[in-house]
Design brief:
Length: about 300
């Protein structure tokens, strides 16, 4: 096993922070996507061009642990290693650190596949890439292991009609915006979790008419799992259905299913462990009784991704 390799160095921009005052979850994924592009070059993939069909690695699944909130101006370094090497995919570990505070900010494990401009199907990994990936193999540290989520094989995708029949609530409906599409014309990896993040205020409004814009009680994600089923193109109408799967004293687990509103097909599914967050004390709080009662109305225990 080898040590992790630095593949990204940047910082938290002010515009990457949300109403909670810290870097939004979508930018953890965005930075990890940038790190994956650097790693692709280290693994021997050339820069995308018309002659090589734009070969690049894309994440098909993410497991994320958010360990320390990061504020505007914080320096960010990402180191990576390869956990598993297969002919069809790699499992890659990303460790995001704040080097000034000398703490791990987040960990991300990605199942990645090789695709081209068309993205009609995953491509076999070149032998040179597999050889270099084996040279970068490492192990998963304890602080990156699943804690509140079980990484079971993904379930059969739901349809929009099935989600509605189960009692999931509508929290998002909007066209995919041009700025959230990559150079191949597909939805960026950041945009999937970004849509979920943008749906949260509507989700909160279902929890006892909680308006987070005028409250000092916010929310913070501790752990996320995302499974990417489709890569939608510009103009696709996106819609999200959301529900609660489990409620504890402080933490609760919710599920979000992202659909193509025209076809009703699943685009992505996400499951997360979150807490209610005191924005002044900057710490998790026990779920207030009134909001617990509202959360319980959205409970679908058998739901998963």
């Amino acid at each position: 096993m080898t040590s992790l390799i630095e593949i990204y160095r940047n910082s938290v921009r002010t515009w990457e922070c949300d109403e909670m005052g810290h870097m939004n979850i979508q930018f953890y994924v965005d930075k990890a996507t940038g790190a994956l592009a650097v790693l692709s070059r280290m693994l021997g993939l050339p820069a995308p061009s018309s002659s090589n069909a734009g070969l690049h690695l894309v994440a098909k699944e993410h497991h994320i642990r958010f360990l320390r909130e990061q504020l505007a101006g914080a320096p960010i370094v990402i180191q990576a290693g390869v956990l598993e090497v297969h002919d069809s995919h790699l499992r890659v570990y990303f460790e995001m650190r704040n080097p000034a505070a000398d703490v791990v900010a987040a960990t991300l494990v990605a199942r990645v596949e090789l695709v081209d401009h068309a993205r009609t199907h995953p491509l076999p990994m070149p032998s040179e890439l597999l050889e270099r990936a084996r040279e970068m193999q490492t192990h998963l540290p304890d602080h990156a292991a699943p804690r509140g989520l079980e990484l079971t094989p993904p379930r059969e995708p739901l349809t929009l009609d099935q989600a509605d029949a189960m009692g999931m609530v509508a929290t998002y409906l909007t066209p995919l915006e041009p700025q959230l599409v990559d150079s191949d014309g597909f939805m960026t990896t950041r945009a999937y979790i970004g849509a979920i993040s943008d749906s949260i205020p509507n989700f909160a409004s279902r929890v006892g008419n909680w308006d987070r814009s005028n409250s000092r009680i916010g929310g913070a994600a501790l752990e996320y799992r995302l499974v990417y089923h489709q890569a939608p193109r510009n103009g696709t109408i996106l819609t999200i259905r959301s529900a609660i799967r489990h409620i504890g004293p402080k933490a609760y687990t919710f599920c979000h299913w992202l659909f193509d509103n025209d076809t009703g097909r699943t685009i992505a599914a996400a499951e997360a462990v979150a807490v209610m967050f005191d924005l002044d004390a900057r710490k998790a709080i026990t779920i207030p009784d009134k909001r617990r009662a509202a959360l319980e109305k959205l409970l679908i225990p058998e739901l998963g991704i």
